[in-house]
Amino acid sequence: MSFPIYHLEMKIERCQVRARLNDVPVVELTAVGEQPEWFAPPVNLYLIGRENRLEVVVSPLPRSDGSPGDFRDVEVEGAVRVYGKGDAVAPGEGPVVLDLRVMRELARRLEEAAELDEALAIPQTFRFALDNEGPDFTVELTRGERLEDEEALRDYAIQLRDRARALDMPGLVAEMEPKVQAYAAAYDDSADAIRKSLQHVLQNEYAPRGFLTDFEREEVELVPCASGRLCELRRPGGLPLLQTPPDAEESTMQIPVIVGKRDGALRVVR
Predict the structure, then answer these.
(1) What is the distance between the alpha carbons of residues 135 and 186, in angstroms, rounded to a whole number?
(2) Quick one: which of 172, 169, 194 has its CA closest to 181?
(3) pTM of whole model > 0.85?
(4) Cis previous bond, 123, omega within 30
(5) How far apart are CA 140 and CA 179, in angstroms?
(6) What is the pLDDT of residues 91-118, one digit of tens each?
(7) pLDDT tens, 21-43?
(8) C-alpha of 65 from chain center
(9) Domain segments of the chain: what residues?
(10) Which helix (H) or strand (E) holds 27?
(11) Strand 242-243, strand 239-240: pairing
C-alpha cells in the first residue's frame, strides 16, 4: 500500500454523534428523519501511532414535544478504514482497521438498564483503541505544552477575528502555517502546494462573502483538546470561529480553529 490515509467512517440514523480522536474533535454529525447520514473524514492529523484513543458519543434525537429521545430508535455504524494515498473513498469500502461495534454494546447497556428498571442516561459514550502506521503526532498531542492562559487564548481569537474582519487573507494564512505543515506531514503532501491552495480558497471563496465577526472577546468559547495541549476557539453558540454569512440558499462556509503553542506563541495548528 502507498502512504496510508485513515478515515473514520460513520453512518447514522435518528441520532447525533460526536467523535474525538486522542481528545481532538473529528466528527459531529446529526441525522434527522429516516434518511441516514454518512461521513468519512480523513483523520491522519490526529494519530499518534500506537494506542490511539477514539471516543464516540451518541445521543438520540429529542421527540417533537421536547422530551428525551429513545436509544431504541438509534442506528450507528462505524469503522476506521485505511486507504492508500490516491485511492477512492466510498461507503463500506476499504480495509477495516477498527470495527466500531456501537450497536452491540448499546443493546447490552439497554438490556442491563431494563433489568434495573432504569432509563439509559443520555448521551452514551463508547471508547475504542487502535494502532496506526505512518502519521505520528505523539509529541504534539501527548507531550506538548499545555495551554493554561485563557486570557491569551481570547486575545488570540480576537486577533484572528480582526484579520478576518479586515479581509487580511495573507495574515490568516501566515497564522495557519503550523496547520499547513501538519497537513503536509499527515498526508505526505507539499507544504507549498497546501499553502497556495489555502491562500486561493480564502482569497477567492471566503473573502468575497466576508466573515461573521459580530462577537466580542468575552463571548469566545474555549474548548480544550488533547488534554489541554490544544484548544478550539469558537464563536458564541459553539460555532466555528471563521464562518461566512449564509448565502441565498442558507449555506455557509466555515473553518474550525484549533490552536496550540509554536515557539512560545499561539498559532493555528489544525
Answers:
(1) 5
(2) 194
(3) yes
(4) yes
(5) 12
(6) 889 999 999 999 999 999 999 999 999 9
(7) 999 999 899 999 888 999 999 99
(8) 30
(9) 4-140, 145-268
(10) strand 24-31
(11) unpaired
